[in-house]
Specification:
This protein is of the alpha/beta class. It has two domains: 19-163, Metallo-beta-lactamase, Chain A (4-Layer Sandwich), CATH 3.60.15; 185-318, Metallo-beta-lactamase, Chain A. The protein has nine helices and 14 strands. The strands form three sheets. Strands 3-4-5-6-7-8-9 form a seven-stranded mixed β-sheet. Strands 10-11-12-13-14 form a five-stranded mixed β-sheet, with helices on one face. It is globular, with a radius of gyration of 20 Å. The structure holds zinc ion.
Length: 318
């Protein structure tokens, strides 16, 4: 083998080791801090193209183990996340946190407990109850359908330990402070936000979204979500990690979504006073939301968000 061929072979083999999703790109841990790393996932809905990977798995490396936050949306994604961890450290995974019940964040638990059966996985008690009560199986089905079977073999694997508000979890020499029940209900009624004390990082789950909108379903509360984001900013931390989209400081990675929700609230409250229907409020909100029109899901979600806010405002007025 001559030198050129050898170089070419080396280049190909190192590329083939990257976690590559055809048509989307390569995924690896970005460094937030010397111990804290995030893989920023694709921004879409689960589909064939992204294989059900669309969240932001995080990891913190402690003295004698690794702690994972939201290991991804399928068994296969979880295995890829573990593979990426192994490229950075050979320490074992000793714990994980699941920010809420939506399966795109936690079905990867299966890969963690398969490889590290003694790992503890923490979540809000309502998350564990709902996951066991059908939400887990339902998410396995959603992933199977939307990826056309690429998630086959994924089995709902539940968290092992329930959290309480302001609980401090000490593991591998690291302290994690749990923020739940701040407002009762925000993105869902199962949310926790996880603070890594050492690196001053807050993992917000889907209480925070950047460059991508999500649904506010029947278990959500937009007013509660606003309060949760204000609470997160008031913690005065250095790094903020949204459930989807780029991490950053409070101004870059929390305030944009907070401002969006406040605009929706203000325009909907105004429309409610004037007896407008949701579709009549939409153009007024849209006029103030130029900065958000390129966020994934804007067209699909704006009307639904106004409708949900209107229902909340009506309920508060009664
Ligand atoms: Zn979610």
């Amino acid at each position: 083998m001559n030198k050129l061929v050898l170089l070419f072979t080396l280049a190909v083999s190192s590329t083939s080791q990257a976690w590559t999703i055809d048509g989307l790109g390569e995924y690896k841990f970005d460094t937030l801090d010397k111990q804290t790393f995030i893989i920023h996932g694709p921004l879409g809905e689960p589909n064939v193209k992204n294989h059900g990977f669309m969240n932001n798995p995080g990891m913190v490396i402690g003295a004698d183990g690794v702690i994972v936050i939201d290991p991804g949306g399928t068994y296969q994604v979880g295995k890829n996340v573990i593979n990426e961890i192994k490229k950075i450290t050979d320490k074992p995974i000793v714990a994980a946190f699941n920010t809420h019940v939506h399966g795109d964040h936690w079905l990867g638990n299966q890969a963690i407990l398969e490889a590290y059966p003694n790992a503890k996985i923490y979540a809000h008690p309502a998350m564990i109850a709902q996951a066991k009560d059908g939400a887990g199986d339902s998410w396995v089905g959603i992933m199977d359908t939307s990826t056309e079977g690429l998630s086959k073999g994924t089995v709902a694997t539940y968290p092992t330990d329930a959290t309480t508000h302001l609980q401090e979890v000490n593991v591998a020499g690291e302290t994690f402070r749990i923020h739940n029940d701040i407002t009762g209900v925000a993105h869902t009624n199962t949310d926790i936000m996880v603070e890594h004390v050492g690196s001053k990082t807050l993992f917000l789950g889907d209480n925070d979204l950047i460059h991508r909108f999500g649904r506010f379903d029947g278990t959500s509360d937009m007013h509660g979500n606003i309060k949760a984001l204000e609470y997160a900013i008031d913690l005065g931390l250095t790094h903020y990690v949204p459930g989807h989209g780029p991490s950053g400081d409070a101004n870059n990675a929390v305030k944009p979504f907070l401002d969006y929700l406040i605009i929706i609230k203000e325009e909907t409250a105004k429309g409610y006073e004037e007896d407008l229907a949701d579709y009549e409020i939409k153009p007024f909100a849209d006029k103030r939301l130029a900065d958000y029109r390129d966020w994934h899901g804007y067209d699909a979600q704006l009307g639904k968000h106004i409708n949900k806010m209107l229902l909340e405002i009506e309920a508060l007025d009664i």
